[in-house]
Amino acid sequence: MQRETMIARLEEHGDTPWDMLIIGGGATGLGVAIDSASRGYKTLLLERHDFAKGTSSRSTKLVHGGVRSLQQGNISLVMEALKERGLMRQNAPHLVHDLPFVVPNYDWWEAPFYGIGMRVYDMLAGKYGFGPSRNLTREETIERLPTIETDGLRGGVIYHDGQFDDARLAINMAATAAEQGAVLLNYMTVFHLDMEKDIVNGVKAVDEESGREYTVNARVVINATGPFSDTVRRMENPEAPKMISPSQGVHIVLPKEFLPGESAIMVPHTDDGRVLFAIPWHDHVVVGTTDTPIDDVPVEPRALDEEIEFIMTHAARYLTKDPTPADVRSVFAGIRPLVCGGDDENTAALSRDHSLTISKGGLVTITGGKWTTYRHMAEDTVDQAATLAGLEERATVTRHLNIHGYHQHAQEFGALAIYGSDAPAIEAIIREDNTWGEKIHPELPTIGAEVVWAVREEMARNVEDILARRTRSLLLHARASKEAALAVAKIMALVLGRDTEWEAAQVAAYEALADGYLLG
After folding, report:
1. Is this model's pTM higher than 0.85 or not?
2. How many CB atoms lie within 10 A of CB 467?
């Protein structure tokens, strides 16, 4: 994917209406683009920042059926998510894998209670299961979780769910949509919805790099902007009632020593009723999450002091070593686009977990849901949008469509495993210049060739794109990523043909961003 090529294709299309125009380049928007393009519809996606800039790169890194939904009795929702979990692993095995979870038991009733619950989870998964659950003895629990708090520990229950790298999957999804014929552009801000006879028939957008404005026609416009859905809806109708009730989820990242081994911890019920996870991820540990209602939706959400205290307190309860602020490598926050009460629009709630709304002017808004069910959400959206636009009816093909990078044995590529079938191309970049095989920082796994690849083939435009999403440096070690910013800027400047002034501006902007991911 090259941005220059995408711009050229947008301009070549001219005034001809696109079959589907998608606003938003997160998990949902990218999923819709894949589904639409793979059905043969002329598809355009516009994202005002970078792909997965928001919530879609700030998840708990889980592909799961939803233990909390099971507790609430949402059986149909769990079954749908478990099926989609299986399809995600099938279609993107280089990024989605099985992860064993252990529920530690400290009270006599927990072993039978959670043991039965997880067996129901297994049964609902059926052929899409990741592995059988079973009860563990105290000794087996400690063997799997060497740093678990042993005072009062009776045993545990092990079950299996999925794990993935969210931002990497998003980038591979963008590439998949492009391979299917879609045009996708990051840093292209939609600032106006065009209407004819009170019907939405296109948008006006501005290229944030060149400043050029575009008028784009479309048979149907799809609003897939997650927490920002109401902003787009009010471009059509300034009086549109509130649809999104945002909630913030926070995570902290700790060194691997806090949870060595290959198993995660799941605490089914914290003080606020949420499920808490401690998960091994990229040789670090992700602990979260919170559920805090918020009033506004910032582009860069920040963790509240009480959220950090909540996570640190609960982590200390279950780990032998209590984490301190000095141990925290990074803090990140994401916003859930929870759907509030209905309004006077024509709403088709296609599951208990996501909502699809069609306004009086024909704007299609898809929101709610979660990463695990992105494919099903996209299928529902394209079905409805195609009908609304009067397009030829075509069935989805995404159930068995491989995501870009697909490789059944990606682990053979070692440190480049997350790139799947792209790994050999990155190895070839190292052969161009051996210095690109060196790490950008001693405490980060990223090498220079990954930066070059991201600029050449993944539409990375700035240092943040590289360190926050094409690699996960910002989340794994925010301070080290700050120190690596100049090295990344120099490589990018070489590939993009930028000057030292650009380098300095990029480093300053990134350092200011990374400060928000540090404690103290």
Report:
1. yes
2. 30
